[in-house]
């Protein structure tokens, strides 16, 4: 026999046995009476016997129905316990969160702190790397969800903006550009650039925007560490362009000075990304919802 009984068939059968009335059973299950009747009929076809007989007061259980009813009750009870355990497991399991280096340094700590406060029962694992590596980890299924800056490169990933930021040019306190509000792009032609590594979201944006102005550079210093770049700039080694959110303390303490570049827009978005077709667990859904409503204090 090709047809198989479903949990739905069993639930309808058990409820009709309890109510001894098709209309009441359908109402309790929040389905239509024809749908309930169909489920019972499918079960009768499967068992090859009549399960209910109508009488003047409702429906009477046949000998077969009385025989199956206790077993169906036991199955449904076990199924309910299994569902509860699965939901409990889902809500208390772990979530593996990825982040680009910039976001991992300036935003992720406060995001994770709030998530831990709201859901202390969920184990959180974090991986921080450059945006391209984080994106590949999402594609590979190694990460559940991630926060990056810059655009993604795969149509298999969902990308949602959750925060806006901008990159700013900085120099040391003794640099000739210190204290300047705005400088023409040509003024940077002979400067020594200190930039993030290739394929980072920050570097990708800088290269894209500058190339649109036919300005190309070969950095003399590349690093995956934004802190290393800031310290190098503070020591007068060269200039850099970095996320403003990561520079506030150094700017306030005048360790570095910022300036804008004429005709250059370095505003950008931060994104939460996840795989399109991957099953989203309860912990991941909670993280996504929190990030979608994230507002920095």
Q: What is the topological layout?
A:
Layout: H1 7-19, H2 22-29, H3 33-47, E1 52-55, E2 58-61, H4 63-92, E3 94-100, H5 101-106, H6 108-118, E4 123-129, H7 131-140, E5 145-149, E6 157-172, E7 182-183, E8 194-196, H8 201-211, E9 221-223, H9 226-234, E10 240-243, H10 248-252, E11 256-261, E12 267-275, H11 282-292
Parallel strand pairs: 3-4, 3-5, 7-11, 8-9
Antiparallel strand pairs: 1-2, 5-12, 6-10, 6-11, 6-12
Helix pairs in contact: 1-2, 1-3, 1-4, 2-3
Structural account:
The protein contains 11 helices and 12 strands. With 297 residues, it is an alpha/beta fold. The longest helix is centred in the N-terminal third of the chain and has 30 residues, at 63-92. The chain starts with 6 loop residues before the first helix and ends in a 5-residue tail after the last helix.
Q: Kindly estimate the percentage of residues that lie in beta strands according to DSSP.
A: 15-25%
The level of helicity is 40-55%
Describe the global form.
rod-shaped
Q: So how many helices? A: 11
The strand count comes to: 12
Mean pLDDT: 90
Poorly predicted regions: none
Q: Tell me about the biggest sheet?
A: 8 strands, mixed
Q: How far from one another are the termini?
A: 63 Å
Order of helix and strand elements from N to C terminus: HHHEEHEHHEHEEEEHEHEHEEH
Rounded to the nearest angstrom, the radius of gyration is 31 Å
The assigned structural class equals alpha/beta
